[in-house]
Write a structure and sequence with these properties.
Blueprint lengths: L5 H4 L4 E5 L3 E5 L8 E6 L11 H22 L3 E5 L9 E7 L22 H4 L4 H18 L1
Antiparallel strand pairs: 1-2, 2-3, 3-5, 4-5
Helix pairs in contact: 2-4
C-alpha cells in the first residue's frame, strides 16, 4: 500500500471480485453503469512494472471482464484504458459503451452529447447484480486456472 493512493486506501467502487493479485470493481456512475475497473493489488504505476506472468494474469482478467460485457450487453463498443494520470496505481478501465449513452462517441470524460432517459442502468440488457455475478464468475475462473 502507498499512503495517499486512493486505490490502495479505498475499494474504488462496488467490489465485484478479487484474486490474490487483483480486484474487479464496478464504478458507481449513473451515466456508465457497465464501467468496471481491474485494479492491480500491489502499488505499481506502469504495466511494465509487472513481470511477464503478472502481465498475462492482468490482461486475462481484463479480457474476461470485456467478454462478459460483450456477451451479456452487446454494446456498440468496449473502451479499454489504463491512463493513471490522476491515480498512478495500475488499473484498467473496461467500459461498455452504447450509441445511446450520454457521451457516445466521445470518451466517458469528454463532452456530454445527450441526456439519457430512462436512466442508463435500466437500458442494459441485464440488471447490474446479474452482470456483476457474471463478471465475478468469469474472473474467479481466471484465479482458479492460475
Amino acid at each position: 500500500m502507498a499512503a495517499g493512493c486512493e486505490l490502495c486506501e479505498q475499494p474504488g467502487g462496488v467490489p465485484v471480485a478479487s484474486g490474490l493479485a487483483w480486484r474487479v470493481i464496478r464504478v458507481a456512475d449513473a451515466d456508465f453503469p457497465a464501467f468496471y475497473r481491474v485494479v492491480w493489488t500491489a502499488h505499481v504505476a506502469e504495466f511494465t512494472d509487472l513481470s511477464p506472468a503478472e502481465r498475462a494474469t492482468c490482461m486475462d482478467v481484463v479480457a474476461r471482464v470485456e467478454t462478459v460485457l460483450r456477451e451479456r450487453l452487446s454494446p456498440t463498443k468496449i473502451n479499454l484504458a489504463a491512463l493513471g494520470n490522476m491515480v498512478p496505481h495500475l488499473h484498467w478501465h473496461v467500459i461498455a459503451r452504447f450509441d445511446w449513452d450520454s457521451h457516445f462517441p466521445q470518451p466517458v470524460w469528454g463532452t456530454r452529447q445527450r441526456d439519457v432517459a430512462p436512466p442508463a442502468a435500466s437500458r442494459l440488457a441485464v440488471p447490474l447484480d446479474v452482470l456483476d455475478a457474471a463478471v465475478r464468475s468469469a474472473v474467479q475462473a481466471a484465479e482458479e486456472s492460475a
